[in-house]
Amino acid sequence: MQAALQKHLKETQGQITNLEKVFKSIGEKAKAKKCEATVGLLEEGDEIAKEFKGSPAINAALIAAGQKVEHYEIASHGCLHEWAGLLGHQEAAELLKENLDQEKAADEALTEIARSEDNKKARDGESETPSDDNLKSSQTRNSRPSAKRLQFATRR
Against a cut of 0.90, is the pTM above it? Predict the structure, then answer.
């Protein structure tokens, strides 16, 4: 999961460059603007990390939080891409499509990571690094997160 996040961080830096090119292509100056929605999603991710710290469900919880951010970015880039095309700004549309494709790929990568192991570990109460190989399966099952703790998936 860490490798996927680091890869996407590099892509995000390239997306900023693409956005600067988008503005230049339409004759506007790019200005940084704080996105309160993204800030809220990131704060929620921090809350989730604290809530699930030490839990076998931590990776599944963080993936869900990350996917919320990706979905928001997909919606934003998708709308901007379509609008640029409708307004005849082909260069801008192509740059925004590149960003959109990267966001979709990041979301799919998180989905694959979750499907491959993390959701199953969360369900089964398995830790990344068990402290005692001789733990009984009933003890492991008792460490499963409750339904209440898994409500993170429907927040906001």
Answer: no
Q: How many CB atoms lie within 10 A of CB 43?
A: 11
What spatial distance separates the first Cα and last Cα of the chain, rounded to whole Å? 24
Which CATH superfamily, name and number, covers 2-154? Ferritin, core subunit, four-helix bundle (1.20.1260.10)
Domain boundary assignment for the chain: 2-154
H-helix segments, the chain = 2-25, 36-52, 58-86, 90-113, 119-124, 137-142
* CA–CA gap between residue 105 and residue 67 (Å, rounded): 11
pLDDT tens per residue, range 90-133:
999 999 999 999 999 999 999 998 888 756 776 777 654 433 33
